[in-house]
Amino acid sequence: MLATLHEQALFVDGPVWGGVHHLTTGVEPHTHDFLEIAIIGPGGGRHVTSHGERPLRHGDAIVLRPGAWHAFGDCADLTVANCCLSARALRAELYRLPMLRRLLWTDPVSHGARGVAVRSLAPSDADEAIAQIGLLEGDLAAGRRRTGRAVGRLMTVLGILADGAEPDPGALEPAVHPAVAATIARLEAAPAEPWRLADLARAVNLDAAYLGRLFAQCTGSTPMGFLARLRAERAAALLVNSSLPAARVGAAVGWDDPTYFARRFKTLVGLTPTEYRRRNRAAHLRRRPPRGTDVGERVRRGGW
Question: Lower CB count within 10 Å: N or C terminus of the chain?
Answer without folding.
Answer: N
